[in-house]
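so my prof wants the structure for this chain in the tokens format not the other one, which i didnt know existed until like an hour ago. anyway here's the sequence
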Amino acid sequence: MTAQNDFASHRTLKLSSYRRIVVKIGSALLVDRSKGLKRDWLESLGADVAKLVQAGVEVMIVSSGAIALGRTVLGLPKGALRLEESQAAAAAGQIELAKAYSEVLGGHELRAGQILLTLSDTEERRRYLNARATVGTLLRLKAVPVINENDTVATTEIRYGDNDRLAARVATMMGADLLILLSDIDGLYTAPPHQNPDAQFLPVVEAITPEIEAMAGAAASEYSRGGMKTKLDAGKIANAAGTAMIIASGTRMNPLAAIDAGERSTLFKPSLNPVNAWKTWISGNLEPAGRLVIDEGALVALKSGKSLLAAGVREVAGQFMRGDTVAVVGPDGREAARGLIAYDAADAVKIAGRKTNEIATILGYDARSAMIHRDDLVVRAAKRAAAAKE
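here's what i got, hopefully its the right format
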């Protein structure tokens, strides 16, 4: 049995059977409000990581905690922080966090390499490739990349806002076959368990459908930016690229070993038809620059593998440039696809709904026949009815 082709029961899979794993750690797991860094817990995680590395697994850590740790170090008050306070806390916390990881992993003769990313680093193609090369080189040199959003410079408009989706982007960027989200909850329930005592636990999720998404609740911790919703967003990004995802509790010591021991966790199965690396980057783009609303005929054409022609576009929204990522919305209002637009917004508005042989006359120059070429287009997979099983 291998990690790539047999997910019949995630409890029978050992983490050492995976080739490359991304582990995301929530702030509440790392930082105690009154005492600061939870050193004993981090030591136990370091032992788990070292065991996996010794088994030949490449491990990357996406770690929250810089702001939470920094606000403790700087003595900032409880409650919401202003932007400049958050960035100052991140600046102080990143140093402490990097030091802690270096010491903990160093105790197992492992090197840590810190990577600080912003949304732009994974959304802009050139910077995405550069980030991938850097992380890949660290792995090749047998170091453990420790990745966090660069909160010292990120703002509300240009940030992930949570490390769940950042971890998913790192996983797809690096071709990981497993993403583990360690949190203060041990998996997915049919409703938030702290609100509904009758909520049922789901050990395996076949596909993240609208019904599954409706089960998500809000963040349960002061330090958490996301909740189950952002974890499901992460799952959609990862699963579409062929990466499995596990949500597990990190509140116990040696949390990765606990997964191997069969402790409760939820496995989200990867797509059986993952998109290639180029289309993974397109589909995982979190902030489309615009939106195209298409008719039913165009939707049928896209599902059959054809390009999006101007004739099928009914509405154009957004200020985008040629090459930007745009969302393609069907007649029912749901996003049906995502792709790289071949026209600036102004020209797209002019040719929307027009036949291909009219475009050159309308624009005054010979242009592409497709609004979005099929090679630059990712069509959303059809939702599977059987989304979860006990």
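also thought this was worth mentioning. The first helix runs from residue 27 to 30.
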